């Protein structure tokens, strides 16, 4: 009986202790929304996927700005498989909103306004990669584990509405002074140190500037009555009071590196590993040097094996991304290919800020809208604004510029500098640069300059622009794909095929018919 | 447990006990049967009253009770017993001595909860190994010595200091170690082999079901030595071993013809990218032919003189043409480029030592026993300045207080301590990585013995390169990893004999450890992820406390003279578990060589972890036997665990056995035949076996390299216990500028989650033939695992990536065979015993989660083996040739393809033991057959250009051609004289310009019929690129695990007693021993000691699967030789 009593006592008496042992004591079930905001903003720049906005990522090589020449580390092959999706980050957006509502007692908070922006941002990011994606039934957690796919058009409609709504809500907070808001690593802390209100003013510009990008992404669908792309674009451009836009580089949404915890991906720490193994891509650098653009000398090393002067534009030659790696690595050995600029990118831990949504891009988007007749105004002026903005990002001034390279035979930090004169008027006067009176040529010029402004920033946007416009001419060959073609989309994440089979199959069939989930299929938004 | 369940349980217990209250009898005799040889008890002997049908069997302690009258004659008989008769007198409590054959007597084994039981009554598979068999040819880790000795048990022996062997039973990791009936937390080093009487391996859950979920994968039960009543007042025993490690049986074979660098070019600038391929290079540099090159130890001109090294390009030109040669200009005088480091690894590695000493004293009499034992083990690694010391104190004893109360206790303290053990995990923190794989023979180990640069002591080490690789001496003497662990296990118990039928027992045990691990990473060390060259200091503290308190009631007796005998126990356990850990790291050191946290440049990073667990259980075990015909055992355990949301579950088992030879006459041929069968249904839940420094991935995010030491844990992992998704626990981490960020977990937990389930069915047969000269034991088992607790992947568009719920069933079938034989047993004293063990298992997916719609984890379907390995695969033409692209690189299918299964087909061991008078010779071969593994060492040796295979055969031919012809104007790559590409010869290229297209789903070629193939004509310009690309593909380094080892040899001699006359010794034994003497494996892959990889990476007991196809780096495996001395006084 002793035994029975022991058991009895033990089993019933410990109820309280039992319950307290069930929960994980190593974390919190409630956090301030600012903590979640920080992680979302970090994801925006560099989610744990292989195509982050961070420089020196695969995206940079797929946009053909740079190349790998070292098979052991990397190659320049395009993807053959799946995209990574951002729903986990979006689930954090949902969590941030609910935590903000818990703290504030209302759903009218800046976190909710930014939540709308983030939704639009990631929906667009995903749909640009794969096509249709779940939106209307997404993010319901266990409430719906097999969400239906929304057609790409619907994804864009939803996203554009979210951006409009985010703008309105932000305007309200800015006007009425409600701005309980922190955790914004880009503005209120770390990189910006702005007041919460100033931060929201910046976010409003970012929201509208991004919306111009999304509308331009849809240029092929400009005739679609539901989307009404040209009118939306014009409405924003023509109502700066309601839709404030970026006015300069200081409005950029950009990631700024520091010396202590957030290093630029190229730095003295990895110089020995990477500096020779990655080189400049021809698609980018050869365009710059053919335009006698001083940016070439700021971002790259001269290819001294070519035997020209260090400051001769001819010394700035990238490798075609489609070239096979064997040839490319032998060219590196013989010094006939430009390497990534030592002075700007390797000598410090801070490199340059990584732009995510930028003023130069906006200028080119407006120029393009004017070129297409969506908005009235001087396309050429915005084209010039864009070029100048980008050049000023690289510190280019009219007159004497200093360009710095690693000295021949020198090690990192042993530099040689040259004074190089640059005159924008002369640069602009070149026929290839001067805004053409032929609309189609001018459009190509806008696209070309936009591509040049995307160097090492904005993630895959340069690739998306190529896909939309065919500019610039991308290099093809065995180096980029066994089929030597550039894929036009990503496959869906593998898990969708097994875990959301019916919706996946229905969506793939409706989009691509019998071709299936194939990387060479054309997305809806690119079908005229 | 709610009230209803409590009542129910009381009722069950009451009913179980009911039959016994009517059994008290008058005129009963009780007694014990003991062996005349050593006074050990004889269980399972038949005791009958002569001339009647009344009879019983002795229990596990040799005790019996029987109703009889004075003057009756008791007949004691049984297998291996010389039948004896004893006449009953006045004395009601008698001891009967029988002469018994030792081997059969020893067939009493320890079963769950420490209950000793006769083998013939056991209905499940167990196998015992004598502790004394493992004492002579020592392994640093006692479990290593079990390799090959038990069928179905695969011990992944690791040669690394403090490396924990993977102990795998029937394909699953054993996590339950039980010492004298008490579960302990074991890292397998905290067991002192000198104190162990026997190891008993409980192979299936039926055997270990009494331990509840912990016993899911079987258990290793250890019975320690106790003091015994003997002829002398006390016994002193001394056991001493000394072994030296020398001679490699598995080591990377390297080439010494080409030095470091890339693409045939190298010049040292600053070893950090300032020269030509002088940092993070491969060993594809220039041929070591005496050419003059600037090198790391070249003289630097004091006068500022510079030296120009010119390189030729593939067209024979000086880089950039004659007008503007691209050359390397440096201030280091070029020196001859020769192979001055042919023996770098050998020159660095030293002989290892293993020294063990044990002294113990034991005593016993009728009322008490005591044993005190002290052990020390010292191991010196083959890597300089690495050691591990283990101290072990073991004390156990028992006292009988009166006739009814017996009190026992034991305490075992174990301390492991070392100021430095090496880290072999792939990366610059590994000496093998630095010396054997990624640097060439162009530097010399002795020349870098003084490992600081002159004038930079403490701040900058000296080596051939400064970006990636590290000086091995510097690593051994400056980069120190300390390990200090105290393990304490203790238990105390009191047994009270309530009546002849009932014994009550209360016992309590603790198993606790504290651990401190330190790492001093010096300035100028630059491992992966920590490449600032400013060092770090880290401390990892862990504390575990685990307490079991049990109350048991044991009973045994006949049921009303019916021939039925019943015995068993009921009990309850309260388990209380606490674990805390902290992990701190500096974030770069301000001042070099000052290893404290105040010296951190950036804020210290610190993590803490806490886990508590409460488990309540009640259990019973009942054995019912009928005369000599059968024995049925049933056990049940009810368990409530806080690790699984307080749910309560029942774990039943039943086993039955019958010894046919006890009641059927098989003549002389079959002396013993037993059939057995068992079934168990065990659940597991919410706990993990081991834990790292900082859970939630913080170790990796902070350290970025090396091994996260896993200590034994057994506590909750909270993956299945959080009341998510309503209250998810946020993960926090550092975002920009160290500011805290938080993320919501994207895994939800099914609120209806139940523990994982394993149903085990087992059948077996044990037989002996030819007067026990030949014995066989066969077992077939079937584990039906599931529904498991499985993280079912769901559409990430839901926001969640997985829902943890009950799904996924796997099925494992397998079997074990043990053969024992005595081929020779001569009257002159020559004896030859053989033991053969074979074990096999195979696991398939019986059902996959419904949410996976037929395809689980990308590759697997219902019915597929779980250990199928998938990886990238090269495209072969329909006629079987490898297909190269236009530039000479192999083309791969777009998706991973099946490459084979990773589990071995079977594993085996053969022991031979010859004895002749005082001499003993024993040796053991063991190994595995079948199963695939990817040899990562071989892969890296090829890719890095250091492997011997890169300078021999066809690759060597191409390499030499490249080296000789690189500067020739006509050089375009490595071609044969007939114009065919050297390395691509035999392969094909697509000749009709059609590009292959790939199936988006399978990754296979869809337009195969449209492709035309012709002989490959193009070589890559550099063979480095080609070899790196080719060997990145696992197809070329995947190898069958089939291997055999001559694991141990013992030659022993017992000095005859007559020679010891006049000396104080009771016995003296001297043995010469050897371990790891021969290794038979695919000769192309003998850089890998397959021992460490006994099977696929194990799926955890309760969650899904994870298979790894790839080996890691290893310290080369050595042979060891030694001497053992055993003396008793």
Helix/strand/pairing category of chain A: mainly alpha
- Overall CATH architecture of the domain at 271-352 and 359-456 in chain A: Alpha Horseshoe
Distinct helical segment count of chain B: 11
The share of residues in extended strands of chain B comes to 35-45%
Biggest beta-sheet profile of chain A = 2 strands, antiparallel
Shape of chain A: globular
SSE pattern of chain A, N- to C-terminal: HHHHEHHHHHEHEHHHHEHHEEHHHHH
Strand order of the largest sheet of chain A: 1-3
Instruction: Indicate the CATH class of the domain at 271-352 and 359-456 in chain A.
Output: Mainly Alpha
Distance between the termini of chain B: 55 Å
Roughly what percent helix of chain B? under 10%
The CATH topology of the domain at 271-352 and 359-456 in chain A corresponds to Serine Threonine Protein Phosphatase 5, Tetratricopeptide repeat
Strand share of the residues of chain A?
5-15%
Helix content of chain A: 40-55%
Biggest β-sheet strands, sense, barrel of chain B: 22 strands, antiparallel, barrel
Let me know the average pLDDT of chain A. 92
Describe this structure as you would to a colleague.
The complex is a heterodimer of chains A (528) and B (1129). Chain A is mainly alpha-helical. Chain A has a domain at 271-352 and 359-456: Serine Threonine Protein Phosphatase 5, Tetratricopeptide repeat (Alpha Horseshoe). Chain A is built from 21 helices and 6 strands. Chain A has helices at 2-13, 15-22, 33-46, 58-62, 87-104, 110-130, 152-176, 196-217, 229-238, 271-274, 282-290, 295-299, 325-333, 342-346, 359-371, 379-393, 424-429, 439-453, 461-469, 494-499, 501-512; strands at 66-68, 253-255, 278-280, 354-357, 399-406, 415-422. In chain A, a hairpin with an 8-residue loop joins strand 5 (399-406) and strand 6 (415-422). The longest helix of chain A has 25 residues, at 152-176. Chain B is mainly beta and 1129 residues long. In chain B, the strands form 14 sheets. Chain B has a 22-stranded antiparallel β-barrel. In chain B, strand 27 and strand 28 (502-521) form a beta hairpin. Chain B is globular and about 115 Å long. Mean pLDDT of chain B is 87; it is low at 8-26, 102-106, 314-325 and 1098-1106. Chains A and B meet through helix 1, helix 2, helix 3, helix 5 and helix 10 of A and helix 1, strand 21, strand 29, strand 30 and strand 31 of B.
């Amino acid at each position: 009986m002793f035994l029975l009593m022991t058991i009895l006592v033990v089993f019933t008496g410990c109820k309280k202790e039992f319950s307290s042992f069930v929960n994980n004591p190593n974390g919190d079930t409630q956090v301030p929304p600012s903590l979640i905001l920080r992680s979302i903003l970090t994801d925006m720049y560099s989610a744990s996927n292989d195509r982050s906005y961070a420089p020196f990522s695969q995206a940079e090589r797929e946009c053909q700005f740079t190349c790998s020449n070292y098979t052991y580390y990397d190659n320049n092959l395009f993807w053959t498989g799946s995209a990574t999706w951002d729903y986990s980050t979006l689930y954090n957006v949902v969590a941030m909103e609910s935590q903000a509502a818990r703290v504030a007692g209302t759903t009218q908070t800046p976190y909710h306004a930014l939540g709308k922006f983030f939704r639009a941002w990631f929906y667009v990011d995903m749909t640009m990669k794969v096509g249709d994606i779940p939106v209307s039934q997404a993010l319901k957690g266990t409430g719906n584990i097999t969400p239906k796919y929304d057609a790409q058009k619907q994804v864009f409609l939803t996203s554009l509405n979210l951006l409009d709504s985010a703008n309105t809500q932000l305007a309200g907070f800015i006007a009425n002074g409600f701005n309980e808001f922190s955790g914004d690593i880009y503005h209120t802390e770390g990189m910006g140190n702005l007041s919460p209100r100033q931060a929201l003013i910046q976010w409003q510009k970012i929201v509208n500037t991004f919306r111009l990008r999304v509308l331009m992404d849809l240029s092929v669908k400009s005739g679609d009555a539901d989307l009404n792309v040209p009118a939306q674009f014009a409405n924003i451009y023509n109502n700066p009071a309601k839709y404030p836009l970026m006015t300069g580089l200081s409005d950029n949404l950009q990631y700024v590196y520091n010396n202590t915890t957030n290093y630029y991906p190229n730095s003295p720490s990895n110089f020995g590993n990477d500096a020779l193994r990655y080189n400049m891509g021809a698609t980018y650098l050869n365009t710059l040097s053919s335009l006698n653009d001083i940016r070439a000398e700021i971002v790259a090393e001269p290819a001294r094996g070519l035997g020209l002067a260090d400051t001769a534009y001819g010394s700035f030659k990238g490798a075609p991304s489609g070239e096979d790696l064997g040839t490319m690595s032998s060219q590196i050995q013989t010094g006939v290919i430009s390497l990534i600029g030592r002075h700007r990118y390797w000598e410090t831990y801070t490199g340059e800020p990584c732009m995510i949504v930028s003023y130069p891009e906006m200028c080119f988007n407006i120029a393009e809208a004017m070129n297409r007749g969506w908005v009235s105004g001087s396309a050429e002026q915005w084209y010039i604004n864009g070029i100048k903005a980008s050049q000023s990002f690289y510190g280019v001034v009219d007159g004497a510029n200093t360009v710095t390279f690693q000295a021949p035979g020198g090690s990192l930090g042993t530099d040689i500098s040259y004074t190089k004169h640059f005159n924008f008027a002369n640069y602009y006067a070149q026929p290839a640069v001067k805004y053409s009176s032929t609309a189609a040529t001018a459009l190509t010029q806008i696209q070309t300059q936009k591509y040049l402004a995307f160097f090492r920033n904005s993630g895959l946007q340069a690739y998306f622009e190529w896909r939309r416009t065919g500019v610039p001419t991308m290099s093809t060959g065995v180096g980029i794909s066994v089929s030597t073609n550039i894929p036009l989309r990503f496959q869906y994440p593998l898990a969708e095929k097994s875990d959301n089979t019916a919706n996946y199959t229905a969506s793939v069939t409706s989009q691509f018919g019998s071709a299936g989930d194939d990387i060479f299929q054309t997305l809806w938004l690119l079908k005229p | 447990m709610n009230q209803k369940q409590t009542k129910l349980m009381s009722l069950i217990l009451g009913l179980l006990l009911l039959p016994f209250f009517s059994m008290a009898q008058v005129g009963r005799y009780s007694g014990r049967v003991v062996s005349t040889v050593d006074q050990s008890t004889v269980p399972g002997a038949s005791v009958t009253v002569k001339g009647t049908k009344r009879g019983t069997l002795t229990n596990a302690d040799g005790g019996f009770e029987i109703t009889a009258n004075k003057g009756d004659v008791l007949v004691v008989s049984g297998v291996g017993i010389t039948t004896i008769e004893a006449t009953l007198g006045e004395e009601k409590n008698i001891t009967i001595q029988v002469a018994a054959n030792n081997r059969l007597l020893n067939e009493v084994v320890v079963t769950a909860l420490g209950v000793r039981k006769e083998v013939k009554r056991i209905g499940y598979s167990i196998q015992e190994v004598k502790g004394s068999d493992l004492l002579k040819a020592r392994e640093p880790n006692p479990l290593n010595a079990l390799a090959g000795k038990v069928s179905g048990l695969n011990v992944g022996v690791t040669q690394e200091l403090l490396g924990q062997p993977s102990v795998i039973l029937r394909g699953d990791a054993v996590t339950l170690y039980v010492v004298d009936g008490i579960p302990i937390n074991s890292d397998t080093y905290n067991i002192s082999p000198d104190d162990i009487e026997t190891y008993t391996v409980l192979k299936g859950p039926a055997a270990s079901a009494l331990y509840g979920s912990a016993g899911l994968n079987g258990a290793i039960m250890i019975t320690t030595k106790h003091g015994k009543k003997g002829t002398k007042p006390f016994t002193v025993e001394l056991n001493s071993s000394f072994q030296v490690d020398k001679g490699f049986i598995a080591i990377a074979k390297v080439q010494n013809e080409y030095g470091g660098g890339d693409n045939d070019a190298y010049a040292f600038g600053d070893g950090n990218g300032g020269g030509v391929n002088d940092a993070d290079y491969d060993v594809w540099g220039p041929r070591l032919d005496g050419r003059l090159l600037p090198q790391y130890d070249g003289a630097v001109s004091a006068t500022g003189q510079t030296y120009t090294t010119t390189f030729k390009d593939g067209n024979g030109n000086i880089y950039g043409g004659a007008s503007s040669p691209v050359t390397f200009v440096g201030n280091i005088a070029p020196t001859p480029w020769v192979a001055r480091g042919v023996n770098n690894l050998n020159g660095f590695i030293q002989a290892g030592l293993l020294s063990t000493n044990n002294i113990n004293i034991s005593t016993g009499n009728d009322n008490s026993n005591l044993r005190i034992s002290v052990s020390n083990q010292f191991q010196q690694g083959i890597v300089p300045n690495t050691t591990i010391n283990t101290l072990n104190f073991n004390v156990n004893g028992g006292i009988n207080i009166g006739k009814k109360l017996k009190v026992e206790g034991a305490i075992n303290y174990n301390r492991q301590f070392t100021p430095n053990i090496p880290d072999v995990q792939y990366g610059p923190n590994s000496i093998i990585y630095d010396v054997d794989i990624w640097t060439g023979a162009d530097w010399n180990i002795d020349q870098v013995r003084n490992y600081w640069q002159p004038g930079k002591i403490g701040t900058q080490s000296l080596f051939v390169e400064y970006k990636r690789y590290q000086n091995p001496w510097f690593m051994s003497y400056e980069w120190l990893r300390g390990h200090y662990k105290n393990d304490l296990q203790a238990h105390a118990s009191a047994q009270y004999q309530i009546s002849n039928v009932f014994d009550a027992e209360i016992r309590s045990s603790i198993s606790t450890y504290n651990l401190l691990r330190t790492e001093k990473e010096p300035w100028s060390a630059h491992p992966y992820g920590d490449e600032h060259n400013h060092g770090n200091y880290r401390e990892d503290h862990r504390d575990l406390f685990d307490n079991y308190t049990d109350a048991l009631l044991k009973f045994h007796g006949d049921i009303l003279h019916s021939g039925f005998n019943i015995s068993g126990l009921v009990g309850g356990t309260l388990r209380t578990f606490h674990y805390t850990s902290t992990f701190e790291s500096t974030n770069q050191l301000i001042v070099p060589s000052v290893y404290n946290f105040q010296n951190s440049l950036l804020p210290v990073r610190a993590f803490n972890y806490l886990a508590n667990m409460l488990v309540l259980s009640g259990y019973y075990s009942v054995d019912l036997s009928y005369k000599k015909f059968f024995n049925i055992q049933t056990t049940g355990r009810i368990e409530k665990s806080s690790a699984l949301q307080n749910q309560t579950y029942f774990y039943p088992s039943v086993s039955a056995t019958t010894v046919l030879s006890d009641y059927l006459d098989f003549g002389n041929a079959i002396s013993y035949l037993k059939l057995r069968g068992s079934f168990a249904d065990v659940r597991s839940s919410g706990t993990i076996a081991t834990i790292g420094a900082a859970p939630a991935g913080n170790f990796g995010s902070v350290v970025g390299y090396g091994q996260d030491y896993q200590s034994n844990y057994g506590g909750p992992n909270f993956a299945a216990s959080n009341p998510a998704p309503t209250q998810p626990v946020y993960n926090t981490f550092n975002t920009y500028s160290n500011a805290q960020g938080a993320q919501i977990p994207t895994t939800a937990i099914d609120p209806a989650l139940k523990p994982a389930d394993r149903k085990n069915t087992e059948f077996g047969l044990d037989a002996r033939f030819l007067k026990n000269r030949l014995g066989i034991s066969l077992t077939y088992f079937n584990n039906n695992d599931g529904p498991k607790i499985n993280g079912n992947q769901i559409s990430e568009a839901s926001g969640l990536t997985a829902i943890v719920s009950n799904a996924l069933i796997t099925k494992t079938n397998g079997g074990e065979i043990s053969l024992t034989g005595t081929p020779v047993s001569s009257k002159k004293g020559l004896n030859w015993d053989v033991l053969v063990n074979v074990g096999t298992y195979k696991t398939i997916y019986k059902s996959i989660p419904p949410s996976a719609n037929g395809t689980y984890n990308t590759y697997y379907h219902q019915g597929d083996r779980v250990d199928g390995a998938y990886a990238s695969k090269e495209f072969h033409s329909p006629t079987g040739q490898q297909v190269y692209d236009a530039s000479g690189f192999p083309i791969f299918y777009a998706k991973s393809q099946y490459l084979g299964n990773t589990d071995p087909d079977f594993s085996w061991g053969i022991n031979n033991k010859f004895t002749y008078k005082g001499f003993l010779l024993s040796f053991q071969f063991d190994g595995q057959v079948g199963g695939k593994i990817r040899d990562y060492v071989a892969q890296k040796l090829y890719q890095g250009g250091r492997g011997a295979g890169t300078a021999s055969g066809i690759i060597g031919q191409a390499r030499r051609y490249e080296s000789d012809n690189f500067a020739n104007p006509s050089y375009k790559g490595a071609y044969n004289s007939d114009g065919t590409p050297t390395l691509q010869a035999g392969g094909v290229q697509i000749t009709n310009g059609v590009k292959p297209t790939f199936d988006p789903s399978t990754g296979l070629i869809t337009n195969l019929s449209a492709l035309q193939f012709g002989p490959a004509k193009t070589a890559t310009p550099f063979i480095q690129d080609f070899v790196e690309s080719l060997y990145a593909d696992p197809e070329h380094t995947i190898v069958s695990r089939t291997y055999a080892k001559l694991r141990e040899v013992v030659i022993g001699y017992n000095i005859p007693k007559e020679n010891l006359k006049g000396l104080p010794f009771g016995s003296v034994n001297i043995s010469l021993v050897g371990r790891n003497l021969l290794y038979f494996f695919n000769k192309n892959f003998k850089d890998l000691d397959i021992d460490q990889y006994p099977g696929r990476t194990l799926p955890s007991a309760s969650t899904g699967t994870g298979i790894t196809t790839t080996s890691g780096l290893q310290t080369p495996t050595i042979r060891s030789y030694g001497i053992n001395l055993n003396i008793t006084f």
